[in-house]
Amino acid sequence: MYDKRMECPICMSPYQTKKILSRFVRVASLDTDFYSVYENTHLNPLFYHVNTCPNCGYSHTEDFSPYFPPNAKEQIVQQVCQLWTHQDYGNERSALKAINAYKLALYCALLKKEKHVTIAGLLLRIAWLHRLEQQEEEEKRFLLYSLNEYKLSYETDDFQSSKMTLTKVLYLIGELNRRVGQEHEAAYYFSQIIQRHAKAGDPQTIEMARDRYQEIREKQKQEAEVI
After folding, report:
1. Does residue 60 register a pLDDT over 80?
2. Least C-beta-crowded within 10 Å: which of 114, 140, 143, 193?
3. Number of domains composing the chain
4. Is 200 part of any domain?
5. pTM, whole model, 2 decimals?
6. In the structure, what pLDDT confidence band is assigned to residue 197 with cuts at 50, 70 and 90?
């Protein structure tokens, strides 16, 4: 780990937060919704994705826009900073502390009116942390929230200037539908990738969509045979 120097865009206080050097991160496996399982559970970059100012509580990630809409800072000061008691998130984090940091970032993102794609990413990471803690009900709850935000991002095209591609957004809408038991909707979005966006680049995600679509078809076939 190393300490990254930050400056809070709300209260302008300098602070430090932990990050993990990428060369020490070893991925053991990757889930179908891009959740990474790491060989060393203590070196999990997911825990340190959020930056939280210890002075005022403003929390954000590198995915946040540097732009603040009119009155957004005032809203954050009133609803976060003025209610904040000094807490330091700059040291080693547990899964629980990481979840709290993400929820702070989520609240700040909503007050700041961040893009749907950014909010969806926060919600998905919270779901992943609940998966790590084997809290299935909470995981499913946040997967549903994330699914709704990714659908809004797709409908409004607000992912266009982000790191997300159309293929990945469609894939995640399909995969999150599948994980919450909405397989008909999942199959629709996977088929959209296969039929309409197979030449859009990102061959790995397209292949994953084909695999998930085939799994759903096989499951539906087996269920029909049982009936």
Report:
1. yes
2. 140
3. 1
4. no
5. 0.94
6. confident
Q: Is residue 108 part of a domain?
A: yes
The CA distance from 17 to 209, in Å, is: 36
Residue ranges making up the domain that contains 77: 2-134
**Burial letters for 99-110: b for 16+ Cβ neighbours within 10 Å, e otherwise?**
bbbbbbbbbbbe
- Find out whether 197 and 167 touch, Cβ atoms under 8 Å: yes
Summarize the confidence of residues 58-83 as an average pLDDT. 97
Q: Is residue 153 part of a domain?
A: no
- What does the alpha-carbon distance between residue 111 and residue 54 come to, in Å, rounded to a whole number? 19
Give Cβ neighbours of residue 221 (< 8 Å, ≥ 6 apart): none
Closest C-alpha among 171, 207, 204, 206 to residue 189: 171
Establish if 92 belongs to a structural domain: yes
pLDDT score at 112: 97
Token pair of 47 as six digits: 């825990």
Residue type present at position 38: Y
Contact assessment for residue 95 and residue 133, using Cβ atoms and an 8 Å cutoff: yes
Check: CB of residue 58 under 8 Å from CB of residue 11. Answer: yes
Q: What is the 3-state secondary structure (H, E, C) of the chain?
A: CEEEEEECCCCCCEEEEEECCHHHCCEEEECCCCCEEECCCCCCHHHHCCEECCCCCCEECCCCCCCCCCCHHHHHHHHCHHHCCCCCCCCCCCHHHHHHHHHHHHHHHHHHCCCHHHHHHHHHHHHHHHHHCCCHHHHHHHHHHHHHHHHHHHHHCCCCCCCCCHHHHHHHHHHHHHHCCCHHHHHHHHHHHHHHCCCCCCHHHHHHHHHHHHHHHHHHHHHHHHC
